[in-house]
Amino acid sequence: xxxxxxxVGQEIPAISKEIAQEKINLFERSGGKHGPSFFTDAxxxxxxxxxxxxxxxxxxSVSYALECLRRFFGDEIFNRxxxxxxxxxxxxxxxDTVTISGKVTEIRREANGQRVVxxxxxxxxxxxxTSAGSGSAIVPSGYLPVE
Amino acid sequence: MTSPAKVQVDWNAVEIGEPLPAYEYVLTxxxxxDYRAAVDDPQARFPTISVRADTTAFYEKYEDIGSVNxxxxxxxxxxxxxxxxxxxxxxxADKYIRRDKPYLVTEAVSVDEDGRLIDRVITHELKKxxxxxxxxxx
Lengths: 147, 138
Known about the structure:
The structure holds two protein chains of two kinds. By secondary structure, chain A is an alpha+beta fold. Chain A has a domain at 11-19 and 56-140: Thiol Ester Dehydrase, Chain A (Roll). Helix content of chain A is 27%, strand content 35%. By secondary structure, chain B is of the alpha+beta class. In chain B, strand 6 and strand 7 form a beta hairpin. The chains are: A alpha+beta, B alpha+beta. Chain A binds chain B through residues 17, 23-24, 26-33, 37-38, 48-52, 55, 57-60, 62-64, 66-67, 70, 75, 78-88, 90-91, 133, and chain B through 25, 31-32, 34-35, 37-41, 43-47, 49-52, 56, 65-66, 68-79, 122, 129-130, 132-134, 136-137.
């Protein structure tokens, strides 16, 4: 078992994503949503949300945060104990580039290990925060050095 | 999914704890592939998030003009396997008014045909989608 080195205040490696309408459309199709929606259709976006173009689902941002944390914690840990909780603050639209970053804010003991909490921010190419929140995973006993 | 006639959502009448229609679907390899391509993550293991398990169940029962995802939490328990049937159980987790805007919180868990708990999703939906344009159309 390889020990991990995690400390409060540590920044986790950021990732960036370019948003294209084709990706937004594919995200919708992958979940079985085939009809026009404010994610995929400009006219529907105008009528329902009052924007002149579609926006990406907030669940795409959650997906990006899941990837960012999974890369940090590793597949085995994150895919079995990981979580993300994001507030969506601004629309993300085709043409945007978003960067997902995070910082460890807490490490606390739990029954099967230590829960590592990460503050997450997603910002666009203008530096505006589009989503913010937190995520966590339980790092099993033995992966982190004994305090 | 087959469902009875849908009813127009009345925020005041929706009850916290109210169950939403359970449903099943098969997670296909195509869904997995499309999801991974959509989010540019070939290692992504939870394509179930794009299924919108909780709000899909909501819209099996209710109709409205749409809503906007204001907050979303997703918890991973075990990666789903393509080809397996998943059963979704969903309910109304909460409702609240914030800054004069109505929100509904839906929650769902997905369990596969072998009884493995896959994930949990909790979504806070703003039930006044035109608010997005009011704030961000410029």
